[in-house]
Design a protein that fits this description.
This is DUF4263 domain-containing protein. It is built from 11 helices and 17 strands. It has 462 residues and is of the alpha+beta class. The strands form 4 sheets. The protein has an 8-stranded mixed β-sheet with strand order 1-2-3-4-5-10-12-11. The protein has a 5-stranded mixed β-sheet with strand order 13-14-15-16-17.
Amino acid sequence: MSAEPVKPFDDDVDFDDDELDAIELYDPVGVMGQHEDGYEFVLTRLKRHGAGNPVEMLRFDRASKFLRIFPTENQFGQIEELQIESPNWDADNHSAESERSGLLYVRGLPRGFSPTYEYLGIARDYRGLFFGIEDNTKCKIVRFITSGTEGVHENGRVFVISLKRFEDYRSAVDRTRSRARTAAYRVIEAESHNVIADLLELPQVEPKRARNEVIRLFTEEALTGHVTDAADRSLLADEMTAVAPVIAQEAPHRLVQLRDDIELVSLDALIGRFEADLEGPYAKNEDHWQKFFEANHFALQLIFATPIIVEIPHATVQATNIYGRGSRIADFLCINSVTRTSLVVEIKTPGTKLMSRTPYRGKGTASVYAPHTELSGPIAQVQSQMAAVPQDLATRLGQTPDIDLDAWNDPRGAVITGRISALDPERRESFLRYRAELSTVTVLAYDEVLERLKGLRTALSV
């Protein structure tokens, strides 16, 4: 495979086998093109079979000797370009084929970069540095230099960092990950012995403590869970994720147990926070509960009888009128994962009133209560949103091909609101009768949601 010059691409080219034979710089996924743009040498890439337009991968400025890289999608939220001071980069010998994957990669990138054109940018292990840049600056370009002044430049547009600083960071990350893996292996080795020790009448063993202080600390963390702070917990989680494939091969039962333990701990934390927030300042804070369910989609998925996917929070199910008024926005638009039909969910608060203060008919134990407007209003709102799904949303789904939703059949609604435990027996009876007659809208109280989560916790712990 050669890097001889290839003509720039035309849009929507569909290469057949004969044409590919005539082009030397290609791999199983894409075809490379190169051309000159003034002082800059440019490399572009086109998916095979004409899938999309050519994508510019990198530029080399022959005057400044900077290599400009445009990372592939989904690596960063803000950073758009990486610039590397590369006086020795050879534009005439820019690419090679990986013997392992068969994919093309760019030659001459510093360690820590991902050189394969399909994943061009920064290797996953080292992206934390760039997330830190995004969190603390508005820079869209990161420039790596051999010498000079580092920091934010060009009116906040460029973040400059030395190649030596980046290499020191990369080495520190690799060193820490290696130590953490060593510690994890020591704990796994001991656990692998202990799980069968009693069957073979062997003594239990403790993990070996290394002489290296860092490895000893990691071993202690992995063994006892005495994690010092949030940063350590995050690092330990990263390391366990990295070694999970090895654990799956060496001690699959430990991986299953670890997963189950994590699920239970996560659910315990969720239940504790949910229960605490039913009282106090969050009891009537609708924004808090919106954010709670946005952050914990699986809580919504668990509390309904049908299998659902939480597709879109704050979904516009009916567009505005010509004056910009009249939108119908659902808190959550969910999809039944089997039937692909819709479930529109409205979130209110645990402090929402469910039944009216005074009886509609009767006295004492014979009292009959009407639903409070804080309950009937959201139900009417959901019903209007359900009607908008086939009437309005269906016509716009054609412009949203990534959403697989049957908008015409059997739309359903749900309201999460109030607390049944706050009702006296007469109001509770009236509420249950009223709710039972709602054929297409499910009403769930917050204390019911809590009990369903607790029931799941009990089932998982058996």
